[in-house]
Amino acid sequence: MPAPKILVVDDQLINVQLLKRKLEREGITVISAYSGQEALDAVAADKPDLILLDVMMPEMDGIEVCTRLQSREETRSIPVIFITARNSKEGKIEGLAVGAVDYITKPIDLDETLARVQTQLRFVHINREMVDLQRRLAEARRAATVGAVTQGIAHNLNNLLGVVIGYLDLIKSGADKPDAVRRNADAVERAVQRIVSIIKQLSSMVVKTRLPTERFKLSELLDGAIKRFEQEVETTGAVTLQNEIGDLDIDSHVEVFESAISALLCNAWEAYGHLPAGERHIVLKTSMKPDAEVPTLELRIEDSGRGIDPTIRDQMFEPFISTKHTVGVGMGLTVARHALRNMSGDLILKDLEQGGTVAIAHHPINRPERNRA
């Protein structure tokens, strides 16, 4: 590990020489500066790990130097220890207020100064280790996510293509049976639509820019989401809508809103496992989010199914994390949360005390700086 590097700034030569001699004996590299401007130039040329900075200097004092360092992203993280002859409480508060991490008072006690420097250098080392660990964790997480998505896509598309090929073979072998051909063609169409749905979901996940919005009636958006869900699961009447806030206008993107809420309804539907359609009941409730900083719509989608599987609780928003074995599932929650966050909202899932799960979606009523399509 390279020797730590400290910048010592003082307009009195003797003070710089005393500190330099003491620190270098401990294996610390010392850079010297004798004015505020020299200090800024030294930091720009050779970024130190720590700065010992005299407060009382002509032309540009230590307070001004520290303020300038704090104003720049690349120097803000460098810890500054002030050296001052002022021992008043007000003086210390002023220095801490502009970003200093510690104070040393004159006349300088070299042993005390060394102890304070070593303490701050330990903090610097720990902080760098944490930053490096966070970077490596982020890289590992990205790699794992890419692997999961790639494996999930390949598995789902291979299965769906197998379905398509199988039904096409049935169509060929039963070309003289119109009813069978029609049924098999319908199955092929459903499989193709599932493939299209996966591709659309993937496309929505890579959107980085904020989508354009328009003003919509909430009732129209909810109706569209419910109809999309009913087409997906091929049933009607499973969703009970309890709209407590009536019909109001909200800023949204119709495709994003409907696909997100439809995905949550599908997730609630699938939570019932193999129960008959008539025994699967979903409640969609609307209200205003309490204690929100801006007016925010809260949508609660409740089911009485099997609840959140403990084995996937911490990964349930990861792509293709699922306990279901149906071909083409595993991205609904991922896509829904991504879509809602793109609209400045969010999504959380909770267990219900009486059994089942509630998905709580938040969506702002008025999007700041709304862009119209």
N-to-C SSE string, H for helix and E for strand: EHEHEHEHEHHEHEEHEEHEE
Q: Largest beta sheet, briefly?
A: 5 strands, parallel
Low confidence ranges: 319-330
Overall 3D form: elongated
Mean model confidence by pLDDT: 82
Count helical runs: 9
Number of domains: 3
The CATH top-level class label of the largest domain: Alpha Beta
Q: What is the H level of CATH, i.e. the homologous superfamily of the largest domain?
A: Histidine kinase-like ATPase, C-terminal domain
Q: Into which percentage range does the β-strand content fall?
A: 15-25%
What is the strand tally? 12
Enzyme class: transferase
Catalytic activity: ATP + protein L-histidine = ADP + protein N-phospho-L-histidine
Domain Histidine kinase/HSP90-like ATPase: 252-367
Keywords: Kinase, Phosphoprotein, Transferase
Plain-language structure description:
- The chain folds into three domains: 5-108, Response regulator (Rossmann fold), CATH 3.40.50; 146-205; 214-364, Histidine kinase-like ATPase, C-terminal domain (Heat Shock Protein 90, 2-Layer Sandwich), CATH 3.30.565.10.
- Helix 7 (218-233) packs across helix 8.
- It is built from nine helices and twelve strands.
- The protein has 373 residues and is an alpha/beta fold.
- The strands form three sheets. Strands 2-1-3-4-5 form a five-stranded parallel beta sheet, sandwiched between helices. It has a five-stranded mixed beta sheet with strand order 7-9-10-12-11, with helices on one face.
- Keywords: Kinase, Phosphoprotein, Transferase.
- It comes from Actomonas aquatica.
- It catalyses: ATP + protein L-histidine = ADP + protein N-phospho-L-histidine.
